[in-house]
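Data deposition worksheet. Section B asks for the primary sequence of the deposited chain exactly as it was used as input, without tags or linkers unless they were present during the calculation. Section C holds the resulting structure in token form. Section D is free text for depositor observations; keep each observation to a single sentence. Incomplete worksheets are returned to the depositor.
Section A, Depositor: J.P.
Section B:
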Amino acid sequence: MKRTDIHTILVPGSGAIVIGQAAEFDYSGTQAVKALRAEGYRVVLINSNPATIMTDPEIADATYIEPLTPEALEAIIAYEKPDAMLPTVGGQTGLNLALALSENGVLEKYGVQLIGAKLFAIKAAEDRMLFRETMQKAGIPVPRGGAAYSLPEAEALIEETGYPVLVRASFAMGGAGASWVYEPAELSEAIHKAIAESPIGQAWLEESVLGWKEYELEVMRDKADNFVVVCSIENLDPMGVHTGDSITVAPAQTLTDREYQILLDLAHRVLSAVGVETGGSNVQFAVDPETGRVVVIEMNPRVSRSSALASKATGFPIAKLAALVAVGYTLDEITNDITKQTKAAFEPSLDYVVVKIPRWAFEKFPGVDPTLGPQMKSVGEVMALGRTFPEALNKAIQSLEIGVDALDGSGPSRKLVAAPEALSTLKVPAADRLFRVYRAIQQGIPLEEISQASGYDLWFLAQIQEIVNCELELGRLANEQITKSPNHQITKLLRHAKQLGFADSHIARLLASFFFPQPTVRELRKRLGILPTFQRVDTCAAEFEAQTPYLYSAYEMEDESRPTDRQKILILGGGPNRIGQGIEFDYCCCQAAFALSKMGYETIMYNCNPETVSTDYDTADRLYFEPLTLEHVLNVIEREQPLGVIVQFGGQTPLNLSAGLEAAGVKILGTSPHAIQLSEDREEFAKLLKELDIPQPENGIARSLEEARAVAEQIGYPVLVRPSFVLGGRAMALVESESHLAGFIQKAIEAAPGQPILIDKFMEDAFEVDVDALADGERVVIGAVMQHIEEAGVHSGDAACVLPPYKVSAYHQGIMREYTEQLGLALGVRGLMNVQFALKDEVVCVLEVNPRASRTIPYASKATGLNMAYIAAQVMAGKTLEELGILTEPRVDGFFVKEAVFPFKKLPGSSVLLGPEMRSTGEVMGHASHFGHAFAKSQTAAGMALPESGGVLITVNDYDKSAGLKFARDMHRMGFKLYATPGTSEFFCKVGLPVETINKFADGSPHTVDLIRNGQVQLVLNTPLGPNAHSDGVEIRSAAIAMNIPLLTTLSAAAAAVSAIQALKKKELHYRSLQSHFGKSLTTKGTKGHEGANSPL
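Section C:
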């Protein structure tokens, strides 16, 4: 029964999207909050991430987009007076906050109970030493090892474990600070790194289980000890690779029933020993393939990354149920939402196979070691469902959007790797190991040898061999000439290939030699009657009928889709999260589903990302979990016959399909694909700006290196290279001189083959401004005007930005609004649009226009109270802005600062300098009535809280010396001790500033890096210039990141930091919910300058 003694529940989110803690916590948090409110509880949500659905003011009763710090939570607890706190849906961040607030006495002081996870359970699962002791007491096998706070302690432990040994940081997330140590010489660095990463300064050492098989069980438990295994998950990669970087399969395929029962029994015992009374947990096991010895690796007493995968794989809403059992329900009291007949205590059973493959972004970070290990490096993932493992595996590869549609690593425009594979390369865990294993099987290397080298189980290799065999048969058919083969033979082989998950485009290449390009494989399939069927995810292997249409494709005899005859609209999602295309686009897709549903349309969501709210079973009326390729999308359109398709909300992925969809006669809603194409084609767009007489930076178009050299020479260096049809600044670069041009042009050609490359004059010291607007073909309404805090040249997704602009005159803002209106009408925009401007020497230039959802939409919507994506979806479905009452730009009350969050710490070796190619994984927001406070909050939320006292290290290039002097004076006035490198120091001394000179790194100790490592510096300003300033700067920046010291690399960020520190010194921070800020009148209609009710915070 539900508890009636609690009324208000505090739910912390997980903060910005970072490697190891991504969009899955938006999904779980949203689901939990909705479940609690449906039960009548008042929910107070705190999360620093504006890009999420969970921070939409409609989701919780009070929504705080504030830093996730114990100080902020204490202030909010004092004001909101919650009865309980549910920390298990906010990832590691939620648990760490629960620990901090318990230990500093805040929860006790305000009478707040922890629900969902007791304090001991959190400690026992998070503190590796306590976890080990708890397991040993309960007689549960764990790897040999222990904790060390110093190098001598670690060396003593190694006598027990031997080499190789795994070194990890306690209480860290996503494997931060973890590494494998193979010999004594590597130990010292690994121990120092782990101790630095651990919030409690503890390194954890464990015997090697490298090469063992890895399994996970996702389990649920309630207070009556009902225990449910939601899903078993098997890693294709052996132990040694972080599970977030492994290819995983559900349900586990190679366990015997007896082995499965052993793991199940152990998981139950682990939960009992740790003291998890209620909620979802994840238990990880390693099994020695030689002896069958099982050890428990770890457990998470919370909703985890694997929970999102397990939920989407089974249709079992783990986060929702975790919230309900936390407030007193038992699993046998809760009805299964999918079948509407069975209870939640009924374990899901699957009659299909699910494969998850991670998506990496190594191309964004040259210099990073791409070898996979115990520290997670992937930025997103895809999931595919199939009737068999080969089918799901092939579909997952097609979902990745890396230009590959086949297991050999080839694709429509990606050539096959010709070099033969060697067993030695299969030993190295890398992003392309699966492709290498496949090519090794093609070459005829014995499966046992491949298994020995790669650690892949022989069962999986035998399954992959089936795909190789089918490929050979298709090749044979091609050589024999298809015309000579009897029809039934072709039909049988093609059907077999489709049942194994082969893409039409792959089959076309295999058969290309004799009768392609005409007719296409699609036409041939249809002629032979080989058509996809759609199956339902029903949690019970078809024993009960599924009421929620959650579908995937197969090539079966029976189709379970049962489309309705309602008016319906298909929304194409964004596919896997990656840098440049993240959760912001998923947010827009969800808003579209909510808005169109309200208008009475049946909404169909199409996506392949298991981490997101868009793929939750109750976001849209129907959900297709399929690869975002033209073949699969057309299959669904032919089955469902929607009125139209929305491609403008899912980022670049659906846009790239729009031309193919239009050619197939599909109606694209909103802005026409032609207008989108025109704005993405740099050459055509430059012409349009000329026609409209709108200024643009001096530029030229190139399609080859020779043309690029001529253009760059004519306009003069430095230049910006921008390829067409890319997102997230892919292959964009700032080029200082001709000697660097060739490499960047080559990258641009590879990023968008055959497309024009724009080369424009780089506008140094310009201000950049983003404008988001709504248009319906007749009028354009400005949604938000945002100014970048960094100078021009930093990608808009990486720049901190402020709304409203704080350094752009009303006159120049007026010009920007006017140009936005002209462009919106000229392009015939229907829906959302974003324009990027540069302001230099009193001239406003247009840099680019995107007539689609931009990544600033969620942030701008939260800051203005105007839900832009929701309105845009209604416009795309035929409403006018006038009908919706949206006629004027909303007034912004106070300042809202968005700050980017970067993965540099997780990717050692990457340059931390920002440029035109986007590299952030997530964002946070800070808001306050003064700019300084808003900026301070954004820095704290991003994990880089600004200091109010201490030392500051300043090392600036010659051009920045005078501006650097102003910064130094301000810091000195506020009582900071100044340190500077010789050149900078000399300049400061001339004007009588007290400064201590410190050697550059190259000049020997005591140098800049010593200063940072010894904790004498609390803030670093380092502005390098040109390609040669890197060596010294790199060491400074790496040390600052390793020591978690705020690092400023631009003068505008330095000026903002001064404002923030001054504001912090004058007055402490206040916190306010969005509902209170907008005076409860947050609507999806126009919000006309609400003053906002003043809360005492």
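Section D:
Residues 139 and 1019 are 49 Å apart (CA to CA).
Confidence is low (pLDDT under 50) at residues 1081-1097.
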